[in-house]
Amino acid sequence: MGIDIKNSDQVKIMAEGGKKLARIKKELEAFVKPGMNALDVENLVTPLIEKVGARPSFKMVPNYFWSTCININDGIVHGIPHKKLVFRQGDIVSIDLGIFYKGYHTDTSVSFLLGNDPKKQNFLKVGEEALDKAIEVTRIGNKIGDISKIIEKTLAQSGFNPIRDLVGHGVGRKLHERPFIPCFVSEGGDENVEIREGFVLAIEVMYCLGKPNLIVDSDRWTIRTKDGKISGLFEDTVAVTKKGPEILTN
After folding, report:
1. Is 2 a domain residue?
2. Residue numbering of the annotated binding site for a divalent metal cation
3. 57 within some domain
4. Residue of 131, 132, 146, 165 with fewest CB within 10 Å of its CB?
């Protein structure tokens, strides 16, 4: 399957959706407090998405019935927002959400700390920095592999490891499209694809403090680090334009 190039009208629609999604994400970050649980967040998000005239992207994924994916600490992605997942002081909370607006998906994720642990704050700061640098190289004429390379380099400089079994991706009419964007330098995928105007990419930084080996919980969705060490997740939807990368979800 080829890569879907968006025209300016399509990018404009996705930018509208991205702004709505960004506002919801910011509201969530301010909302989450110790003592709350993941279902509290889910119950806030769904009405917010509907209020802006959109649909939850994740509910369009077969056999997934929630608007959000929520994880803490060693949980990296696809966590089901259960009531039993209670947030505590010192937790790293990762929230992933997407909306389907006027026929197009946008996708974003954020990790944040409940508390003031300097080591965990630095861990998250590096992830944010890796995403910023990845977005900066998302320019016409560069390669998809350049995005992966700068993510891996930024993480490695601080001794952190990229997750190797999960990838960022194109996004548009479908939630997951080509090209696929690993967080590390790889071969045999889309690494040599030249970035073109009209690409819209969900660039994801997924990483961990320990080894990047993963396990899947008995719920068949939640993915976490095998060694139980902390992980982080940062993602924005980015459009490639003649002027450079345009972040649609902030």
Report:
1. no
2. 96, 107, 169, 204, 235
3. yes
4. 165
The number of distinct structural domains making up the chain is 1
pLDDT of res. 140:
99
The CATH number that applies at residue 110 is: 3.90.230.10
How high does pLDDT run on average in the chain? 98
The three-state secondary structure class of 106 is: strand
Q: Which of 63, 55, 51, 92 is nearest to 75 (CA)?
A: 92
Q: Per the domain annotation, does 1 fall within a domain?
A: no
Residue 36 CB contacts under 8 Å (≥ 6 apart), including other chains: 86, 87
The separation between CA 13 and the C-alpha centre of its own chain, rounded to angstroms, equals: 20
Beta carbons within 8 Å of 38's beta carbon, 6+ residues apart? 68, 70, 79, 80, 81, 82, 83, 85, 87
Q: In angstroms, rounded to a whole number, what is the distance separating the alpha carbons of residues 209 and 138?
A: 26
Annotated binding site for substrate: 78, 176
Specify if 179 maps to a domain. Answer: yes
* Residues 236, 202: Cα–Cα separation, whole Å: 6
Q: What is the pLDDT of residues 126-148, one digit of tens each?
A: 999 999 999 999 999 999 999 99
Tell me the residue range of the domain where 29 lies.
8-247
pTM of the model: 0.97
Question: Can you say which residues are annotated as belonging to the binding site?
Answer: 78, 96, 107, 169, 176, 204, 235
Asked if 207 and 127 touch (Cβ cutoff 8 Å), the reply is yes
188 burial class (0-12, 13-18, 19+ CB within 10 angstroms)? exposed
